[in-house]
Amino acid sequence: MPDKPNLLFLMPDQLRPDFLSCYGADFIDTPNMDRLAEQGVRYENAYSPSPLCVPARSLLLTGRNPIKNGVLGNGQFLRPDLSECGMHTWPEYLNGCGYTTAAIGKMHFYPWDASMGFRHRVICEDKRWIKIEDDYQKYLEANGYRKLHGNEHEGYYQNKGAVVSRLPKEYYWDHFVGAEAGKYIRNHSDEKPFAIMVGFPGPHCPYDPPPEYQALFNPADMPDPIPEAEGQPSGFRESNIRGNKSDWNGVDYTVFTTAQKKKIRAHYAGLVKLIDDEIGCILDALDETGRLDNTVIVLCSDHGDYLGDHGLIGKGTFYESSTRVPLLVRTPWSDCGNVYRGPASIADITATLLNFGGCDIPACFDSRPLPELGIPNSTPRDRVYGFLTGACMHFDGEWKLAKYASGDVMLFNVREDPGEQHNRIDDADCQKIARRLDAELTAEMLRSINLANAEKLVGTSWADERFAERGWQRTYPQPIKRP
Question: Which residue of 196, 289, 356, 400 has the fewest CB atoms within a 10 Å radius of its CB?
């Protein structure tokens, strides 16, 4: 066996923590994800600083926040000259440290078949990207099936995207990903340790579990959705409705009843259960090949899903339903569960993986190793900053300030008001807190804006004789080295 541990990074798409039994859900049993929690560390207050697919994944790839890496929305992606700027993705760093890197499943890269440093890819992309000819599409075609849009299922519009998949489980998206991950582990040579990222397309919408998983959950048993927050900006619902009417989804949420929300939640629970089963199969592959006790396993999601909370669906604001995620880390040297309750950021997975892989952590990273994992000199966070195209957030473990491009500002005491029902921004007793959070958020934002342009530094002094010569050219891009 290699001296360095294998690294396995599991990422279901759009997974909420409160739909896992290890986070307290009593209507579902997720024994395989629970097993990671029982044998490792469960981060109770873990956040995606940028709760959209591509910004969250770009943050993880680069270890730099979205302002610095330039990806603040799903319509953007990382610059193609990262290497020329001295920046590399985490799989590239691990390649250089003797690892074999693989990406299996959904990665949400542009273009979808880009390697982004992974030496091996098995591609099963977004459940909404039904026209791309990835490995999953070829697998379906070879077996007489094809990818289906949600609207090709009975009741899609009436049930707001909650349907039963026409694909049998054996040919379903997440089963394909789980099976391919298990196959890769079983076929891997031990000449080098592996670093695998496994991206499950679910439980992202459409909420379309195969029949046997849809039948497991009754909408009546689902937790009630959270009502709209006091003083919730009207634009939240308006933009959410407008965005979901687009062709990718096509569902109109103008009328969104409690019954419809709870049906969606039951279907979502079915998808979560399916993914838990697939994770169990991956753990079996590790066990059967004797690698379980030499593999670090990390599980998180890129963001959550409102599932009807605040009258919304999907993600994209800094409400808890959108930005709080599960984060579990199991290491071979720990066999007892621990719960870390301080603020945690999925951004720190990147530095954690590099640390376990024996790589130096670049000085320009915002990512730092996660606490409670036995990593020397790891420094816990006392706050999480978040950035999107039209929004920013500051969470200090108790108070959360969120500001939006619409001019709306929301302040919640998440510890006392976990459902975020009472916006305290105009509360006279909270003005000192609001000013502190705002000042610290502004300072972080301004630092990030400055460092986002580090490659444009002239890199010389007016006193340099070369600067005075006609035809002098500045070096571009300058290596990004500063933190």
Answer: 289
The model scores a pTM over 0.85: yes
Q: CB-based contacts of 460: which residues, under 8 Å, 6+ apart?
A: 466, 467, 474
Which tokens hold the place of 140?
A: 């379906």
* Domains of the chain, residue spans: 6-384, 391-468
Q: What is the DSSP string of 317-386?
A: SSSHHHHEE-EEEE-TT--S-EEEEEEEETTHHHHHHHHHTTPPPPTT-S--PPTTSS-TT----S-EEE
Q: Which residues are CB-neighbours of 113 under 8 A, at least 6 positions away?
A: 121, 123, 134
Q: What is the CA radius of gyration of the chain?
A: 22
The CATH number fitting domain 6-384, selected from 3.40.720.10, 3.40.50.360, 2.30.170.40, 3.40.190.10:
3.40.720.10
Selected from 3.30.70, 3.40.50, 3.60.21, 3.30.1120, the CATH number assigned to the domain covering 391-468 reads: 3.30.1120
Average pLDDT over residues 184-195: 95
Average pLDDT of the chain, as a whole number: 95
